[in-house]
Specification:
The structure is a homodimer of 356-residue chains. The first copy, chain A, is an alpha/beta fold and 356 residues long. The first copy, chain A, has 14 helices and 13 strands. A seven-stranded parallel β-sheet of chain A has the order 9-8-10-7-11-12-13, sandwiched between helices. In chain A, strands 3-2-1-4-5-6 form a six-stranded parallel β-sheet, with helices on both faces. In chain A, helix 12 links the parallel strand 12 and strand 13. The longest helix of chain A is centred in the middle third of the chain and has 16 residues. The first copy, chain A, is globular, with a radius of gyration of 20 Å. The mean pLDDT of chain A is 95. At the A-B interface, helix 10 and helix 11 of A face helix 10 and helix 11 of B.
Chain lengths: 356, 356
C-alpha cells in the first residue's frame, strides 16, 4: 500500500472532515502516516476521532511533517474534507505548494478540480507528480444507463439510508460488511461517495458527481459488477443524503433502481433540523414516518441505527430502547455497540431470501 | 427568429420524437421551415402530430429539402429526438454531413456530443458552421448549490409531475402558463429538459445532464432567477421521469428543493407498465397512491391531467370522470379539452396563497 498523509486544514474536529474520519476508521487503499491540521496539531489522530490512539500524529504544517517524517516515503496527500460548496478550503489550499515541493502527489475528491489550478498544475508537471481529481464526472461514453438487469442479482441488496446526511451511513454499511464476513458470510459493500473509494472500495460510483440521467444505471452497474465478480451472500449499499433533505433529497434511486431487498435506516434523535439548515423551516422526519415513506417505494425497513453526535451513550441507549419498542424492529448504536446484534437477523434474511 | 429544420430520422411518428413534437406545438426560439424524416416524407408535420396542418412540409432527405427550399435561409438543423441511450440515431447521423455541406449549423441536445465526432467537427470548422451541443454538463464553477433562498420566492410554484415519463408534463406546464396568461395573470414556466429550452424557455436547466449534487441548487437557482426578473403571479415547473419509475425515479427534488406549493399530476390510465419496461415487474402506480406519496413529501395534488396515448377521447373521458369522483380533485384531458378548466382553481390558489 502507498503511504499517504491527510490534509484537513483545521477542520479535523468538525463534521466537515468526515472523509478523514472515514479513512482513520478504515483504509485498505492507503497506509496512513500522519495528518496535517493546524488546530489539532500535537494530538494523535485517533484520539481526536474517538478517544482511541492509533499512532497517527497530527502536524501543524506540511513543512513540519516533512521535517519530522523525512525517512518515510510518502506518495500521496489526500484532501480529507467534504466542505460545503465543493471547493478546496483555504486552510488546505495554502499547503498544497508545500506538498508538491516535498515530492508528494495530491489526491482530491472535491468537485473543484485541483488540476485546474494553474500554479499547482505547473508545479506538479515540473516535478513529475500527480494531481488526481478522482471525482471528475465520467465521460458520456463511460456512463451506463439503467437496464433492468438488476434482477439478475440473486442475493439480498440492503441500502443504508438516512433521515439526514452525515449520519454514518457509510460507516454502518462498512461495519455490517465486516460483521457478516466475520460470521462466515460473503458480504460486499457498494460505495457511492468519495470516502468509500478512498477507503479501498472496489465496487461503486460517485453519486453526487454523476449526471442525473446515469445515476440509476451507474448504481445498477456497480451492483451487477459486484455480483458477477464476487457472487456474495449479501450486499450493503452506502446511501446518500436523506430521503427528505431539501438540499438534495435522495433515496428512491437506491430502493427502486437498486432493487433494494430491505432498508437499514440511520437516524439521530437529537437532530431536529437538517444538517446546516437550522434556519430552514423543514424538520428531520421521525423514523416511523420515514419507514412509511420507504414502504411506499416498496421496501421494508428491518433495523434502525442511531447516530450519537451531540449525545452520550446513556441518552442514546434510552432512545434505542424507545425506538425498538415503538417500531418493532431492532435498534442499535453502531459506534457504541457495534452491529453484531444484526448478524442473526441478516443471516435469516439471506436464508429466507427469494429473488423476484 | 432564426429559421430551422428538424431531423427526426424516421422516428417522427413515435414517442421518441417528443422533442420534435414539442417544437411543432410551440417554438418561440426558432422559425420552423421543414422536417426531414424518411418515413413520414410527403405529409404535413402538423398532420402527423395531431391531424392539424401547420404548413410545415416533411422531406425524405436533407438533399431533397435543400433542393426544394433553396430560397430559404436556413440557419440551424435541430436533432429532434430523445432517443434512449442518448446517442445520435443512425437515421439522423447519416444526414449530418449533408446538413453541413448545405451550410446549415447543427443544434443537438442528446448526451452524445456531435462536436466530438471528428468528421463533423472538421467539416463544420472548414465551413465556419456551429455544432451546438447544448446539453453538455456545465462546468463546476457555473453550477449552483442549494441555499434555502427558495423561500424568498413569494408566488406559488407548481411542478407538473407524472406517474411515468413521456406523459406530457412539459406540454401541460406550457399550456397552463399560456392559459393563465390569457386569463390576465403573470405566469412563467421553468423548463428542465432539452425541448423546453429549444421551445424558447428563458428560465430552467437540464435536469438529466446535471451532476446530482447540483440538481437542487440549479432548480432553486432557475426559480430564483425567474422570480427576481419577472415577479410572476405563478410558476409552473416541468417535472421529469416518474416518482417511482425504476429507470430513474424523480420528483422529491421538485417538491422539497423547489419548495412546491402544490402538484399537478400527469397520468395515463392505460399504461400499466413503465415506458420501455414492459418486461420489468414494477407497475405504474395508481394516481390515488401517487398522491399519497406526494403528500408524504409535504405537497397536495390539486389536479390530475390525463394523457391519452393509445386511447380515444371517449375512453379518456370516462377515466376523467371516474378519477375526478374518486380523488375529489379536477381531472382534465389537456390535449383534448385544453387546461382552461383549471384557471379558476389556480386563480383562487394565487389569491389565497401565503408564502411560508
Amino acid at each position: 500500500m502507498d503511504k499517504a498523509i491527510i490534509l484537513t486544514g483545521g477542520l479535523l474536529e468538525t463534521i466537515h472532515a468526515k472523509t478523514a474520519h472515514g479513512l482513520l476508521r478504515s483504509s485498505e487503499r492507503f497506509d496512513l502516516v500522519a495528518i496535517v491540521d493546524h488546530i489539532s496539531a500535537g494530538k494523535d489522530a485517533g484520539e481526536v476521532l474517538d478517544g482511541k490512539k492509533r499512532g497517527i500524529p497530527i502536524y501543524k504544517t506540511v513543512k513540519e511533517l516533512v521535517e519530522k517524517e523525512k525517512e518515510t516515503p510518502i506518495r500521496y496527500a489526500i484532501i480529507g474534507v467534504a466542505a460545503k460548496g465543493g471547493m478546496v478550503p483555504d486552510g488546505i489550499r495554502s499547503e498544497l505548494e508545500d506538498v508538491l515541493n516535498a515530492g508528494i502527489s495530491i489526491i482530491n475528491g472535491l468537485h473543484q478540480g485541483i488540476g485546474d489550478i494553474p500554479e499547482l498544475a505547473n508545479l506538479a508537471a515540473a516535478r513529475g507528480l500527480e494531481l488526481i481529481d478522482f471525482r471528475r464526472p465520467k465521460k458520456f461514453e463511460d456512463l451506463r444507463f439503467w437496464t433492468g438487469r438488476i434482477k439478475d442479482v440473486k442475493c439480498p441488496k440492503i441500502p443504508v439510508l438516512g433521515t439526514d446526511c452525515a449520519l454514518g451511513k457509510r460507516t454502518t454499511a462498512r461495519l455490517l460488511t465486516q460483521a457478516m464476513r466475520q460470521a462466515g458470510f460473503k458480504a460486499e459493500m457498494i460505495y457511492t461517495g468519495q470516502t468509500g473509494w478512498l477507503q479501498g472500495g472496489q465496487y461503486g460510483f460517485f453519486f453526487d458527481a454523476t449526471p442525473n440521467d446515469f445515476i440509476s444505471g451507474e448504481l445498477e452497474g456497480a451492483i451487477l459488477d459486484c455480483w458477477e465478480h464476487k457472487k456474495p451472500d449479501i450486499m450493503f449499499i452506502e446511501g446518500q443524503s436523506g430521503l427528505r433533505n431539501p438540499s438534495g433529497p435522495c433515496g428512491s434511486e437506491f430502493i427502486l433502481s437498486g432493487d433494494a431487498s430491505a432498508i437499514i435506516l440511520q437516524h439521530n434523535p437529537k437532530r431536529e433540523k437538517f444538517k446546516d439548515l437550522k434556519q430552514y423551516p423543514d424538520f428531520v422526519p421521525a423514523p416511523e414516518d420515514e419507514i412509511k415513506l420507504i414502504k411506499m417505494y416498496g421496501a421494508d425497513t428491518i433495523a434502525l441505527c442511531i447516530n450519537t453526535l451531540d449525545m452520550d451513550f446513556e441518552v442514546a441507549g434510552k432512545y434505542r430502547d424507545q425506538y425498538e419498542k415503538a417500531l418493532g424492529i431492532p435498534a442499535i448504536i453502531p459506534m457504541a455497540e457495534g452491529v453484531e446484534r444484526l448478524v442473526p437477523l441478516l443471516a435469516d434474511f439471506i436464508k429466507n431470501y427469494q429473488p423476484q
